[in-house]
User: Which sequence fits this backbone?
């Protein structure tokens, strides 16, 4: 994988050198990352980048600085791969930040300039940022009967005490030595993960428990996809009964507009939603634990109703319309209203037994 990425970077550099030797205007072809170039592929069930692209030229006043920045980032990533090291996108920004000789012009003024250039390079050579040896802060946690190898270390996810394994961005580099599980349960809230982890839910139900801590990171989404693709494990998403919980499920399942260029590598179209739903509030007597929905919640729910993958699903239409009609929402912690262990001992086992999932 690393060799292929290095080859792609060298091909890009070689193309630019050839154009310079021919006294042509060197350019980089970059797929357009805009709503106008986003498509929902019904066959794969993923949000994907379309075929539109734009060229970034060196001899163009509007493009010159971005062209320079793209080449700098590409060269920096190749040096990382050559050295066999990784670094954060923040470290990269500081390493490349400098003032150009005989000018007052900086290569980068803020990290908000360098971050989009990384994505430009990703889409230009069709790789993941992590394959460029660029990392971000760890986000997400996992527990289960799994043994992995990570940079030479053997790590057993079932023997990490109360903490669990902290999911890095470089999940593509780990190898699985043992996976003993019947399904993957993805939990939106850290509090929900902690409750289920302490109750040993993953042991009792022989599953892999993943906490996303809100919107899942790319590393977490890649881990979910790998477990689903490589081990054919069903994936169930457990999130709040509100528009944002539903959106988190949507991102895991179909991808997102901002990361449409990597949906095929980090989305899991087979994922299903296990709860919490508005219907569950009435089914499990949680009416006194609900929260009044804000205008922004209702607006977001109405937007979700128009998503292609929700529009044609009667159950999702019912749940989203209930959210709007009742004007309420509920967090997964609302299940504690029925007792601290209600989530792990009654609600989730009941949903699993009934196979009560939304697709």
Assistant:
């Amino acid at each position: 994988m690393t060799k292929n990425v290095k080859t792609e970077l060298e091909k890009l550099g070689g193309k630019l050198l050839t154009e310079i030797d021919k006294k042509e205007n060197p350019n980089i072809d970059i797929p357009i990352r805009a709503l106008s170039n986003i498509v929902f592929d019904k066959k794969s069930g993923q949000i994907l980048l379309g075929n539109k692209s734009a060229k970034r030229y060196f001899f163009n006043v509007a493009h010159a600085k971005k062209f320079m920045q793209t080449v700098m980032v590409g060269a920096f990533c190749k040096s990382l791969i050559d050295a066999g090291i990784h670094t954060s996108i923040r470290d990269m920004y500081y390493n490349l930040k400098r003032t150009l000789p005989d000018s007052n012009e900086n290569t980068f003024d803020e990290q908000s300039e360098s971050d989009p250039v990384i994505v430009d390079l990703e889409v230009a050579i069709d790789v993941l940022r992590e394959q460029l040896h660029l990392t971000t802060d760890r986000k997400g946690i996992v527990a289960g009967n799994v043994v992995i190898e990570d940079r030479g270390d053997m790590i057993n996810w079932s023997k990490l005490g109360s903490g669990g394994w902290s999911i890095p961005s470089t999940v593509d580099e780990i190898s699985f030595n043992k996976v003993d599980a019947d399904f993957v349960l993805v939990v939106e809230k850290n509090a929900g993960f902690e409750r289920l982890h302490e109750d040993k839910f993953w042991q009792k139900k022989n599953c892999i428990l993943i906490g996303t801590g809100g919107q899942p990171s790319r590393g977490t989404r890649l881990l979910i996809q790998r477990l689903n693709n490589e081990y054919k494990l069903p994936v169930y998403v457990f999130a709040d009964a509100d528009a944002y919980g539903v959106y988190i499920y949507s991102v895991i399942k179909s991808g997102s507009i901002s990361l449409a260029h990597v949906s095929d590598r980090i989305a899991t179209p087979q994922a299903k939603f296990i709860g919490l739903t508005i219907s569950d509030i009435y089914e499990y007597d949680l009416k006194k634990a609900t929260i009044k929905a804000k205008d922004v919640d209702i607006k977001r729910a109405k937007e979700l109703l128009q998503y292609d993958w929700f529009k044609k699903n009667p159950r999702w239409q019912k749940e989203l319309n209930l959210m709007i009609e009742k004007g309420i929402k509920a967090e997964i912690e609302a299940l504690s209203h029925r007792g601290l262990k209600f989530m792990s001992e009654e609600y989730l086992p009941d949903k699993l037994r009934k196979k009560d999932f939304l697709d």
